[in-house]
Amino acid sequence: MNTVRQVFPIGAQWPTLDPFLFTAHHLDRYPAGTETFGPDPALLVGRHMCSDFEGKDGWNMYHGREVPGFPQHPHRGFETITYVRTGLCDHTDSMGAAARFGQGDTQWVTTGQGVVHAELFPLVHRDRPNTLELFQIWLNLPAKDKMVPAHFKMLWSEETPRVERRDGDGPRSEITIIAGEFDGKSGQAPPPHSWAVREEAAIAVWHIRMEAGAKLVLPPSPADEVNRALYVFDGSEIVVDGEPVRSGHGAVLRSTVAAELVAGDGPVEAMVLQGRPIGEPVAKHGPFVMNTEAEIRQAFRDYQETQFGGWPWPEDAPHHGGAEQGRFAKHADGRREDR
Predict the structure, then answer these.
(1) Adjacent-strand bridge partners of 181
(2) pLDDT band at residue 228 using 50, 70 and 90 as cut-offs
């Protein structure tokens, strides 16, 4: 049987398989910032402000008015995994947690019974461009965990394991283990109520970088009935057991067999998302993911009545200032981490 079961095109939003719900790849080549950490106001003329997703000039304001990003908005019933390769993300939430992260950091939030958060992308450099590249992955929760307490966790780049592979002096491959295990190395622990906590879920999120002509073998999954998808998002192509998957395309892989990956005639980058399906009904509407339409209606009522605990910040789109503020996390219990 072929290792590649299906090939499909990808764009800014990638098709996913259960237990994953959604993946967005943001690549914004922001210009130099102003003293208020946004683009020059002259560059905002002609944009659909507060709903700017057209990629004009190679970047978006999203829902931001002054600083690009997403002002406060609610979620319930799933998890967000936000992996920032380049640039900075400033996070605030209704639990009172805050963070500035980037440069290979990952933020993992279990939204559970409900959380409100904001994600802003401050343009901290005034003398050069402020390129941002991030991946936001939505991971579902099973019905029994959809109403667990919300939880915020940082997976810092310095503690994120990486595996290097090469044949002698040949071209090199590097695997960044955001979640799961590769070659005996395990990613940092996810939040306590994540589907990824369960060993039988076999969750993996791997970022793969390959030099031209490099070879890499993906091991078989540790269990049957595990979904595995490869997304080639930049560079040349990856040939999977003889079948090419060009940049800008994804492939559903048979997970029970090892898969040999061979990079094309230039460097290439890909993500792998793997996991055992939860296999439950999915009801989605906007920021909420539950099992039934009745639960979605209840989520809207709860948010309207309680604001999921309220918004403890003085504005809808708070950020953490200029480049003098380094990467940090302030947790809901008051604990602080500085990097």
Answers:
(1) 186
(2) very high
Integer Cα distance of 64 and 236 in angstroms: 33
- In this structure, the answer to whether residues 170 and 50 fall within a common structural domain is no
Instruction: Answer yes or no: pTM beyond 0.85.
Output: yes
Q: Taking the CA atoms of the chain, what radius of gyration do you get in angstroms? A: 20
Numbered residues of the known binding site for Fe cation = 73, 75, 117, 119
What is the domain-level CATH number for residue 127? 2.60.120.10
Helix and strand element counts for the chain (H, E): 1, 27
- Enumerate residues 6+ apart whose C-beta is below 8 A from 90: 69, 98, 99, 100, 118, 119, 120, 121, 122, 318, 319, 320
Query: Would you state the pLDDT for residue 237?
Result: 98
How many domains does the chain divide into? Answer: 2
Q: Mean pLDDT of all residues in the chain?
A: 97
Query: Residues marked as binding?
Result: 73, 75, 117, 119
Q: Are residues 71 and 214 in the same domain?
A: no
